[in-house]
Amino acid sequence: MGTSTERKQRVLTGYRPTGPMHIGHWFGNVENMLRLQEEHECFYFIADWHMLTTHFDRTAELPGFTRELVLDLLAAGIDPDRVTLYRQSDIKEVAEMTLLLGMITPLGWLERVPTYKERLRDAGERDIANYGLLGYPVLQTVDITIVKGELVPVGEDQVPHLELSREIVRRFNRLYGPVLVEPQPLLSEPPLIPGTDGRKMSKSLDNVINVRDEEETVRRTVRTFITDPQKVRRGDPGRPEICPVFTLHRRFSPDILAWTEENCRSGALGCVECKTNLADRIVERFRDFRERREELERRPGLVEEVLAAGAAKVRPVVEETMKAVRDAMHLS
Ligand code: TRP
């Protein structure tokens, strides 16, 4: 692995602006992005066109969500001098290349992608079975290949998307010549962060703690968490292994983890106190983040500046790929 003379591999990942960042995102994505920016050449982008695949009827919220996401990433420590941070829709070549790759992507490949069926199911009554949603992996393939991304951080559930990207790349290169780079997955199993109801923390389940929630909001939300149903009052022995509050203690409370486990089991520790301890630590953990974010928020024009600089940085890379693609397809 990496001596300093070796070329760093290029990492690419996108983030859909669909609302406030919660602590599930933080441990699932953001910490990983922070680590990767130390070790690799990274391209991080705001996947605003991808957001439309499920939120096409909420475009009025897009500018706000984008702004919030950029501020969250900056406050978290994503460094735009070190990574290339840009907005997908600023790069119109992404749309051009999506049209071209769409010509060589069999419908069957797209219909087989498990996340497609899941998204349809999760949408419930809303009918989102649109061409754009089906084409989600084609657009994602373009995101990756247009900047020659080599490594794509994914969880297990995104592996089929990346497999499909690799198949599209191989088909393109077979038809038109070796132009596109086949990306590799960088597998990272996102930790399971439970929400207030014990299910996976997710905005659509309305069970989240957002990273920038005010202290009072964090405390109120933590109080609503379910715990071991057999532990009704202080004195009753509890089972930390089935308690979502304890799962969060594992992330936030190394200082009192053993003590919490022991005193929950014996019954000496009640859930109210246990939750207060957790809320204290969550508030503390994101204090710097909240302060930095407030500071960034007060700087007028910051978000537009960062996005404009990111677009300028990514543009030459994109233009080079796009020219090679047009040449290979005799479209120059
Ligand atoms: N699919 C990712 C998500 O659901 C977002 C995304 C879009 C992406 N394009 C990408 C991730 C390219 C990695 C690479 O949040």
List the helices and strands and how they pair.
Blueprint: E1 10-15, H1 23-39, E2 41-46, H2 48-55, H3 62-76, E3 84-87, H4 93-102, H5 107-111, H6 114-122, H7 131-134, H8 136-145, E4 151-154, H9 159-176, E5 184-187, H10 215-223, H11 244-252, H12 257-266, H13 271-285, H14 287-297, H15 302-328
Parallel strand pairs: 1-2, 2-3, 4-5
The protein binds tryptophan.
Tryptophan binds at residues 12-16, 47, 50, 140, 143-144, 152.
Notable characteristics:
332 residues, 15 helices, binds tryptophan, elongated, three-stranded parallel beta sheet, mainly alpha, Tyrosyl-Transfer RNA Synthetase, Rossmann fold
Question: Can you walk through the features of this model?
Answer:
The chain has 332 residues and is mainly alpha-helical. The protein has two domains: 10-193 and 301-328, Rossmann fold; 213-285, Tyrosyl-Transfer RNA Synthetase (Orthogonal Bundle). The chain has 15 helices and five strands. A three-stranded parallel β-sheet has the order 1-2-3. Strands 4-5 form a two-stranded parallel ribbon. The protein binds tryptophan. Tryptophan is lined by residues 12-16, 47, 50, 140, 143-144, 152.
How many domains would you count in the coordinates? 2
> What small molecules does this complex bind?
tryptophan
The top level CATH class name of the largest domain: Alpha Beta
What about the largest sheet? 3 strands, parallel
Q: In short, what is this structure?
A:
This protein has 15 helices and 5 strands. Strand 1, helix 1 and strand 2 (41-46) form a beta-alpha-beta unit.
